[in-house]
Amino acid sequence: MRIGHLFKVTLVAGSISLAALGVATAKSAKEGKSGKAKAEDPVSRGRYLVSFAGCNDCHTPLVFNKELGMPIPDMSRFLSGHPVGAPDPAGKVDPRTDLGFIGATFTSFKLPFGTVHAANLTPDKETGIGNWTEEMFLGVFHKGLHMGAEGRPVLPPMPWQEYRNMTDDDLKAIFAFLKTIPPIHNPVADPAVPKPVLDGMMKVLPKMIAMLDAAHSGAATPPPAAPTAMATPPAPAAAAPAPGAAPAPAKK
Q1: Do 101 and 109 touch, CB atoms closer than 8 A?
Q2: Is 1 among the domain residues?
Q3: Nearby residues of 178 by Cβ (< 8 Å), 6 or more positions away
Q4: Residue 161, class by beta-carbon neighbours within 10 Å (0-12 exposed, 13-18 middle, 19+ buried)?
Q5: How far apart are CA 20 and CA 9, in angstroms?
Q6: pLDDT single digits (tens) 30-54
Q7: Residue 68 lies in domain
Q8: HSE of 30 in the Cβ direction (CA atoms, 13 Å)?
Q9: pTM above threshold 0.85
Q10: Domain presence at residue 72
């Protein structure tokens, strides 16, 4: 073996040893003395999930920042929902041209069927989720119902249909984190949606959940069969010559 080759082998062996040491160090950082992996703190996991799941987009009011010249989240009202006294969107929604209008704080939504306000997710006991149980919180996503059992559906634009694909452990972690944030007393207005609309949504809710479960399990309803190709119609038969008529001249 050449010296150069030996030197390369030594480097490779050294790299493997350092890599193994790195893995061992990282592994030991995640494991206790027993050698078993430590469970991630649910509150930390919940904070991580909330940070990118879009919760702030609707549940933390926006305020206009003059220095930046743009609206930014008002973190002093973190996840407290639609502020009391904040204006609702103005104008009339035309379903032919508009999906809806959004209020100045991005916490109120005027849709074709009514106006909806983002809920208070802080642990305030009177106006937030301070008195909620973990079961109630999971029920919002499992059942699509306000407070997990109340007789009205969770309304758009809340994307509960997407969040229900999270594991129960992740949903529980989010709930654990929400219980740790500062409580803010902010009584959010009830949705201004006619009862017949809510009743209609309740009727279709079981079918929607069944479709979501089927899609999540990979057993979605198959698409309709493709239309059968139309066969080329046969050419009409040549008409027989009338009796006594001269035969048609043959084509050259």
Answers
A1: yes
A2: no
A3: 46, 50, 79, 121, 122, 123, 129
A4: middle
A5: 16
A6: 444 555 556 789 999 999 999 999 9
A7: 42-216
A8: 8
A9: no
A10: yes
